[in-house]
Amino acid sequence: MRKAPRLLLMALLAITVALAGCAGEAPKPATPAPKPATPAAPQVDTKTLTIGIEFEHAGMDPAVIYDNSSRVIVSIYENLLTLEKVTNKIIAQLAKEWTVSADGKTYTFKLREGVKFHDGTTLTSEAVKLSLERVVTINRGPAWMFAGSWTAIETPDPLTVVIKMKKPDATFLAKLAGPAGPQIISAKAIKDNAGTDNGQKYFLEKEAGTGPYMLDKWDRGQQVVLKKFNDYWGGWQGKHVEVVVFKYVKESSSQLMLLEKGELDLAPGLPPDTIKDLKTKPKPGIKIEQGKTQNILSVAVHCQRGPLKDKRVRQAIAYAIDYDGLLNNVFSNLYEPLLGPLPKDDPNYWKGAWPYKYDLEKAKQLLKEAGYPNGGFKLKLGLSANSAAFKSVAEVVQENLKKLGIEVQIETLQWGTLYDQEGKPETAFDLMPIGNYPDYADSSSMLGNQFASWAWGANGWNFSFYKNAKVDKMLDDVLLVTDPAKRAQLFQDMQAILVDEMPLIPIGTRVNNMATRDYVFGYYFRPMMSNSYPVYDMYKEVKK
Question: Are residues 217 and 171 in the same domain?
Fold first, then answer.
């Protein structure tokens, strides 16, 4: 019944066309249907850089923070000295020049004039003195590098700092220039907020640095937002971003999705298999930056507990791990083999023989010699949540040690909780996959913070709770020696002991792969700061 009106309409149209033809007017051609509109490309905010972070930010205090949260802090605070962009060469930062006495025990620094802190005060020698002393007094995080280093810090005038050392330290300048070196806080902020805890409660959430960016807001569990500091002494000539957002995105799949949508500009948390896919099958708008790092992945073995006290048990565990399968199949060759305590790019990496290849029979023999012919014991492994690399290592270790009759129980914790538990030998796990990188540009950095007895747990990065008097002495001696050949030999002698005693099982050195949007420029890899981003040098530009 609905067809009749349609037929009538067609008839009327036919009559109308015929009459028009009789009038001598040619009918007008039908107007073509419009083409579907092409979706507009998403607008790019070139003033804001958004970086995905897979570990939640822990705090703002540079005297306390000693983990991945430093990637935010390095854009807020600055040191007396720093490192050249893509090398480990020491250059000036807040100090414009410095001298060292002939006996190596007096360091004199001349500060830059007119440098402003974010609270509006001016950089003075008092701020440097208070900042350095505060690190040692609080005795957390980077304090292990400076405890007992100086007898006095003098401030003869507002722009001169004199540090009197107890003894020469061949690494002192490198320590000041490292990413964990004492970062300088406003003297007014320190004095006004000292309280009973040296300002730890205040500086957990507040800051007073000199860096190019200052804290705008911190939405816990969501994001940290930094904004341009207009009075930055380095100036704002050239291309820069004005806002930096560190967005907490713990799942790698979510980071990739947000990167594809343009809601992230950098996605550092992508696992090796995703990076491999992006390289072999590129996605529109995404590029992969690649570079070498000194960032190593190892398994800390608790040397003060049960069967693990015996070096033969630790050696057996080292022989039982299928390194090739892990690096080739699980990590897709995005980690290089690590044959010793130091990465191969370190000039003093281990040059002796490396015995620990996958050898199950050798592992069983060592366990038998140690009195555990069939294994028969359990180990607890602490795993940091949201790390695909650590999880892969934990699962491989668990599966491999099962073949020795050793049961590995994996317990996953948020990093802050795990770090607190690992801080003491009595609460630490038996095994823990851990990442590390140098705190300063010298081989003694990684060897010291991983193996010195004074760097146990939260005092450094010695989560193996390893103690050897010979190693401790060598670490002390290498600070006093300036002859390169003698220092190099000391490093080899030290590593010979560590390779034999296996307190830390080396897995691999990370190849740095950073997934970014293709309109992000200025990114580069810093050998000693592979977990941080040179945001001041970065910019966004949509090329037509």
Answer: no
